[in-house]
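sanity check this record:

:::
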Amino acid sequence: MKAGLEVHQQLATGKLFCACPSEFSEEVRGAFSRRLRPAGGEDRAVDTAAAFQAARGLRYRYEIVPSSCLVEMDEEPPHPLNEAALDTALQLALLLRARPVDEIQVMRKIVVDGSNTAGFQRTALVATGGTLEVGDRQVSILSICLEEDAARKIGSSDGEVVYRLDRLGIPLIEVATGPDISSGSEAREVAEELGALLRATRRVRRGIGTIREDLNVSTDGGHRIEIKGVQELGRIQEYVNGEVARQKLLLSVRDELVRRKAEVAERDPTDVTALLEGVGPGPLAEAVGGRGAVFALGLAGFAGLLRSPPGSVERLGRELADQARSVGLRGLLHSDELPAYGLTDRHVAAIRSRLGLGANDAFVLVTDRSHERARTALHRVAARARAAIEGVPGETRDPLPDGRTRYSRPLPGRDRMYPETDIPPILVPAGRLAHLAETLPERPTERRSRLEREHGLAAEVVRQLVYSADEEAFEALTRRGHGAALVVRLLLQDLPAVAAALPGAAPFEPDLAVLDSLLQGVEDGRFAKEGIPAVLAQLASGAPDLDTAVERAGLAGFRAADLGELVDRVVRSNRELVLRRKEDSFSALMGDVMKEVRGRRDGKEVAEALRGAIARVLAEGEC
């Protein structure tokens, strides 16, 4: 297999073509609606993906927020390109050893899925021909672009999609690698390294959704598939491996279809509603009752190949169903899963007879109140079935929460691009590049080596810090005098654990001042490092300050003297055990003590106090 990545990272430099802030908002101040139509590209041809999206006939509603302006509403020409964003893109190009272009030409990329009010996205090529070092390997960088992010999708219903304008226009750096990646795990490593390099510029936005990856995957004998908009870095490997498995399945199905000399005839779908009298409860009952129609399409040679083979979650039937969904249907039924869904053997036999099918042939059924839409769906299904005889068609797919993907639209091509006439070309003088080269930040590899050397941390720990975007907080906290081991525990263990336990995965991102005071509380002996999760949990639940959080966690007011009294009481109440087992009684008694002091005093301090109390009782026994 071969794979390549396109990494899209939002920048914290203000919007790309206006002076509005890059802030999300839930305050809606108004709305307007539009319908979008595809336009021809530079050579006047209409892009396939744009035509496909426009054919859905959707209406788009845009919500206006405080950070919106006339540029985002497409009621005012774009302002000059954001210079800070451009500097960041050029700086990244130098870090990747890419060659910046001499003159930047902003282009319009036709997008009519409603994500941009203008019907196009503005994008600019900044540099080409770079290299990313990942361990002992080098991955080619094809291009570095600067473009505007899309509007934020809020929801959809009844043929209308709702977007909010707060995200529209936020600058994105797009980095495209060559097809040099040969496994899912390697794809994740490359994404991690690119993410660390982007964060090194110190001008990127943080949080869920601020960085997204598009995965391009193909197998030997297959075709390039673009998986669009993966947001979870940890699942890149899963999506790549899943796509490889899907393509292998489709190629094996192709080989069998070719062996059977399968074909899909060019004919109109057949209305079989009248054959389904007496159908039981299920997706076809409404149509048979007079509210819609059921149409069938025969697939010669496809019998048994539409369902999942043993050990696989993929199947050709789902590929066909995705085509029906693309025009608004819920899906389809196919003969490999029948009789079921209210259809009996009699119904299946009647359909097969009407379509003139043999034992090796299959059929699919769709139903809808609109006869035209049902026929359109089956025409798309027929086209996809013909493509199955050829192998794996190139397409764009959306990632699903379970690790699979779903058909989205055809692959876009060059026909969607043409020059932006409202923004003049931007020269990139040598002096500007020389100045940026003098102020380049550390590369992730250099930073990892320095952190290992300065703090004596293990390589894997440093790798986690750099790849999880916690290295800035780590360095800030250690500069304030906190121990490296304690800071690492806080950032890599305690904070993620508390955040994951929040209801609905609500964001919890305490600032440096809070983390500083938290660590200081441990180092001053107010509570033990084991108590950090409990204090963080109280802060996440709304405690206004550290003192309140410590008190609510039950960790306040337990002094060293209190520990001594507790340990003496536990040891003396178990005097016979201590005299019998001597030092071996430590483990049993340590558990009893920790039940009462966990999180209030440091474990090392508790152990020392307990050993001292045991020694005293043993000395008394000898006397």
